[in-house]
Write a structure and sequence with these properties.
It is a single chain. The radius of gyration is 46 Å and the shape is flat. It starts with 5 loop residues before the first helix and ends with a helix. It contains 22 helices and 18 strands. It is α+β, with helices and mostly antiparallel strands. Among the domains are: about 120 residues, no CATH class; about 120 residues, no CATH class; about 100 residues.
């Protein structure tokens, strides 16, 4: 096989475009361009205008297409898409929320709302719209930012064999643009020399049937020359950017990561503490053993020499035990600190790892697999190769949003089914107006020489004009137009309804209704029924495409934002100050140990695993009045409180209103609590008073009993002592009650104040 040179790659790029621009693609672009022309109210060809003018008929149009398309675009793009990231593990959940914030940041940075509106308009009028996700390397002072952008559908060429509505199965997707030479040099200054060698483009083709005249729209393919800063005409040259899928071998490697030197020092300290306790136990055991041996020598059970040998042997065994324990503790600590990490790497990187003797033993397992990567090949002109990159993603960064998918890369627009009806409406209106003109401007039949022609041409249609003719000639006779067929009125009357029926957009959606008043529930019902066809398109095409766009963004963003970065995100909300609307998000935060060594990262964005979901219906508009009515009913039913209802309104400073409502509710609760406390204190006072009375009665009863029992007392002294003790006890109890009553009254007085 011959070696593929850079020149060959450039030539292949051009050949891909020539084959992709086949008869099917050209026919699609012709029909697509016609739909777009009708949207721009360019609904008559040059030949049709000439024929109408030759017949004296008007050339105006009654555009029913543009309002329908505009309201469809509004309902699809009323709000920004919302992507929800779902984390795989606990750590990934936190990073998943961060990803949602980063997506909002990049969407805002790219002016995403306007882009989305343009892409949706392309889908509705041209059949398909395209998003592109790439990296602006010069943004953020060279750090780069991930951006969304729009591609002109007529600049995108897809593998004709693709059968997936998102073109994921395509062998290639090519962007072919006609760009002014100076602009391309500004875009790619490092390739200036090659760009200057390219000859001008001769392959600019227009598929529009309209005539480019003053007052008509100008489209990109109409511009075949540019103007540079030297006020000179410059060429438009072809630029090719081809994306293709290629399988590359990869390894899913499980690697044992050993502790760092700093971590080893920490492990050593921990082991030393445990070993110290073990040494104490061994030393105590050794002393006990030595005492036993000494006692045995003294008793004569063993001779002194044997005793010395036994002591030495015990010391050696103790030292060996300490050494083995140290090795055991160190091994257990090291194993506990050793991590097993899963890493995806290319086959070439795995070979380098495997051939390293020091690192080879750390490989626990590896699984070989193949994965798609996107190869981007760029060239300009016939044979000027610029560059070729392998992107770290497995899906095309070009995401289509087709309107009516036909099973091919050539979808149909929403305008195409309306063209015939629009032409019918235009023709009916033109005939009716032409007939009215003929009725208002009579034609006359006369003998040659019977009338002064200039005078009759000037005054024959003027009210009250006196027209003279020459004697001897027959009286001029007016030629009355034939009465117009009533079918034309029916066509005009039914035409609007037919457009609504074909498009699925009733007049109520555009703000037109025959009813003088309409309930909120009725408006909500109109929105629900009127948008069913749009919702079907949203659910089956748009939202899956946006979800795919979110995944493409995820792949590119995770690989680009690999260093520590701070994102400042603005999230406008009614009632919030500019400071409250700002949100700061940090990723890839380095974690350091006490020795200043990097030991990991917090919110590691590049390695987090999560999936992307798009929030269904997030881009559709919400009938605020109808929704508020429902909230009010829920409030009346007691299902929600007033604070929850206020949060859904659009009143100014609603945050402050909610805060004031919360403070008021708290104060009301405190007042109620204080009232209950006062009631409790009053009850306590009454209870204490009753206890005081009961104590007095009890004392009198006890006193009477004592008088009765005095006869049985041995001495008068005993009686006196008993009375004294009872008196002291009563006085003590009375004083305590008075103190409690005084304290209670004071608490009540303070609460009332």
């Amino acid at each position: 096989m011959a070696r593929t040179t850079k020149k060959n790659k450039a030539q292949i790029n051009k050949q891909i475009w020539e084959r992709a621009n086949n008869s099917h693609r050209q026919r699609w672009q012709h029909l697509s361009q016609k739909g777009y022309d009708f949207y721009l109210d360019e609904q008559l060809t040059k030949e049709e205008k000439a024929q109408l003018e030759e017949s004296g008929m008007p050339t105006f149009t009654v555009n029913r297409v543009t309002p329908v398309i505009e309201i469809m675009k509004y309902f699809v793009t009323a709000n920004n898409p919302k992507w929800k990231a779902v984390g795989a593990t606990g750590d990934d959940v936190d990073v998943a929320q961060v990803h949602s914030d980063i997506a909002d940041y990049c969407w805002y940075l790219s002016n995403g709302k306007s882009l989305y509106s343009q892409v949706a308009l392309d889908a509705l009028t041209k059949g398909v719209g395209y998003f592109l996700v790439d990296v602006d390397k010069d943004a953020d002072r060279g750090m780069g930012e991930v951006r969304f952008s729009r591609l002109d559908p007529y600049d995108v060429y897809v593998d004709p064999a693709s059968r997936d509505f998102l073109f994921r199965d395509a062998n290639f997707i090519q962007i072919r643009k006609n760009i002014a030479r100076t602009r391309l040099i500004n875009m790619l200054p490092e390739f200036e020399a090659k760009i200057k060698k390219v000859s001008r483009n001769t392959d600019i083709v227009s598929y529009s049937e309209r005539d480019v005249e003053l007052g008509e729209s100008i489209q990109p393919e109409d511009i075949t020359m540019g103007v540079n800063l030297d006020a000179e005409d410059e060429d438009i040259i072809p630029y090719y950017e081809t994306y293709s899928k290629k399988k590359f071998p990869y390894r899913n490697v499980y690697i044992k990561v050993q502790p760092s030197p700093a971590e080893m020092d920490n492990l050593r300290e921990s082991v030393d503490k445990q070993l110290k306790d073990f040494k104490k136990e061994v030393e105590v055991g050794l002393i006990e053993k030595e005492l036993q041996i000494q006692q045995a020598v003294q008793s004569g059970e063993i001779i002194p020499e044997r005793g010395q040998l036994e002591i030495k042997k015990s010391q050696e065994m103790a030292a060996q035990a300490i050494k083995e324990k140290e090795m055991q503790l160190m091994g257990e600590a090291q194993d506990a600190a050793t991590q097993v990490k899963q890493q995806i790497m290319s086959e070439s990187d795995y070979k380098i790892l495997e051939n390293n003797p020091k690192l080879k033993n750390n490989i626990l397992d590896s699984i070989k697999f193949f994965e798609n990567r996107i190869v981007q090949t760029c060239s300009v002109g016939e044979d000027q190769f610029l560059y070729e990159y392998t992107l770290p993603i497995n899906e095309y960064p070009i995401v289509p949003i087709p309107y009516m998918y036909t099973g091919t890369p050539y979808p149909m627009s929403a305008v195409t089914p309306l063209i015939g009806k629009q032409q019918e409406i235009n023709k009916a209106h033109q005939i009716m107006l032409h007939n009215a003109n003929l009725a208002s401007n009579l034609r006359w039949m006369y003998e040659e020489g019977a009338v002064p022609e200039e005078e009759w041409e000037k005054y024959s249609s003027s009210p009250g004009a006196l027209l003279k003719y020459r004697q001897g000639f027959a009286t001029p006779t007016p030629i009355l137009p034939a009465p117009i067929n009533s079918a034309f009125y029916t066509v005009v009357q039914e035409g609007k309804g037919d457009v609504e029926y074909i498009s699925g957009v009733p007049s109520a959606m555009m703000g037109f209704t025959n009813q003088q008043t309409e309930t909120y529930r009725g408006l909500l019902a109109n929105d629900e029924f009127g948008t069913r066809r749009l919702k079907a398109w949203m659910g089956s095409i748009v939202e899956p495409a946006l979800e795919h766009l979110g995944r493409c963004f995820q792949m590119i963003a995770q690989r680009h934002y690999s260093v520590e970065k701070v994102f400042r995100i603005v999230q406008p909300e009614a009632g919030q100050s500019p400071q409250e609307q700002e949100k700061e998000v940090k990723i890839n935060i380095q974690i350091y140990n006490d020795y200043g060594e990097a030991i990991g990262r917090f919110k590691d964005y590049s390695t987090a695993r999560f999936d992307i979901r798009v929030v269904a219906g997030a881009t559709m508009p919400v009938n605020r009045w109808a929704l508020l009515e429902e909230y009010f009913k829920w409030f009346q039913a007691g299902l929600i409180d007033d604070i929850a209802m206020i949060a859904e309104t659009d009143i100014r400073n609603k945050k402050q209103v909610i805060e004031r409502k919360s403070v008021y509710s708290q104060l009301q609760g405190q007042v109620s609590s204080m009232e209950e406390s006062v009631k409790d204190k009053d009850g306590t006072i009454e209870t204490l008073q009753r206890q005081l009375v009961q104590a007095g009665i009890k004392m009198q009863v006890d006193k009477g009993g004592n008088e009765i029992r005095k006869d049985v007392l041995e001495t008068e002294a005993q009686q006196k002592l008993l009375r004294g003790m009872m008196k002291l006890e009563f006085e003590k109890m009375r004083d305590q009650m008075k103190t409690d009553m005084q304290s209670t009254k004071q608490d009540v007085s303070e609460n009332e104040q």
